[in-house]
Specification:
Helix content: 40-55%
Number of strands: 16
Organism: Neolewinella xylanilytica
CATH architecture of the largest domain: 3-Layer(aba) Sandwich
Structural class: alpha/beta
Radius of gyration: 25 Å
InterPro entries: AAA+_ATPase, AAA_lid_NorR, CheY-like_superfamily, Homeodomain-like_sf, HTH_Fis, P-loop_NTPase, Sig_transdc_resp-reg_receiver, Sigma_54_int
Keywords: ATP-binding, DNA-binding, Nucleotide-binding, Phosphoprotein, Transcription, Transcription regulation
GO molecular function: ATP binding; sequence-specific DNA binding
Strand order of the largest sheet: 2-1-3-4-5
Protein name: DNA-binding NtrC family response regulator
Length: about 450
Amino acid sequence: MSRILIIDDDRTVCKSLELLLKRAGYSVMCIHGPAEALPAVASFRPALVLLDLNFAVETTGRAGMHLLGELLATDPGLPVIQMTGWATVQLAVEGMKAGARDFIAKPWDNHELLNAIQQQLKDGRRSAGTTSSKTEKAATIPTPDPFAGIIGDSRQLRTIIQQARRVAGTQASVLITGESGTGKELIAEAIHSTSHRSEGPFVAVNLGGVPEGLFESELFGHKAGAFTDARSDRRGRFELAAGGTLFLDEIGDLAAAAQVKLLRVLQERQYERLGESQSRPTDVRIISATSRNLESMVTAGTFREDLLYRINLIHLHLPPLRERPGDILPLADHFLDSARRRYDRPKLELSPEAQSWLRRQTFPGNVRQLQNLIERTAILSPEETITAGQLQRQSGGPGTVSNFAPSGITLEQMEIKMIRLALARNDGEITATARELGLTRAALYRRIEKHGLG
């Protein structure tokens, strides 16, 4: 029977946790202040510690962070899960930098908390010397870094990647914000691939492309006969993502009624298929993304505040490419290298003038637009050296790439225009169109569905 030490000054919280953990088969000890912590660790010898970060009125978490340091100085291998009702990404990242294993927000979800404890106890046993053949194999075979595919050298991007690495090993929900084309799905996939759920599925759904009347069927599934066109049983995205990660893209586009249904499932961690009365438990980690300002939408009454709290335990913001111009050339080189291999043009290169021109652009379509420009120019360039003039012509004019988005056109309208033009150039062939736009087939299908271009 594993021993768990709870350190929390709220006696009601301690009692609730104690009852939950004892029912789950753990031996539990509760203490209520930092002064009792080290003696309790020495006498009780816990396998894991649940540590509240706030023992003071100001709720800064400093008292808990100090105690975390003392605990790990005494026993560096001790698994510690942080808990607080005042969760911030800075506090979570700081705690995990100091050696905490996970971060759980209050009020907690019982299922999520028990899963986190089980995972950390399993990891703790491995670090203590109990290794499986799988972990032994992993120790001898280098594992590719999922974040290596995110290209850029800017301080802003390095900070985002560092934060994403820290939260990947937790069960915390993550909200990724940023303009269209900044790479939100890449970050989400890297978090999944670095997490304890990496062997489970990564299931992405573009909520902006799901009609309101089909929301429940898409997310929760349906039984045959649940509605007119339901000719057979269908598994929903929650079921398909079981044991893995569910990526809710463009969550800011979700209609008000659908927000209520999603919130209920996230709160209760169970759902029902349409046409079925049996509740099914969920076992997914939620990563959400949006190009909208959800805080402003909450103020305007178009997005539920309680849903925002559910999905926004950890917030990562990807800045647009114009705010990190140092990433433009590394990205351009990466895309050009891919084009060299794909189109069998190994001698392709950017002239110094072309590099200078690229650095001056604002790229309203962000990384996706840069990739599209480099690949299109690589295909059409008659010479091995790509010039600034060729890039200008492919961008739509002699000025800058900002001319790509005429005054008055939104990013969404620009995306629709790009997809329509690419489909026309490729005679509607999805694979070729996706390649030209720098998208996967699945991502292109989602955008076609979202914009009604099918």
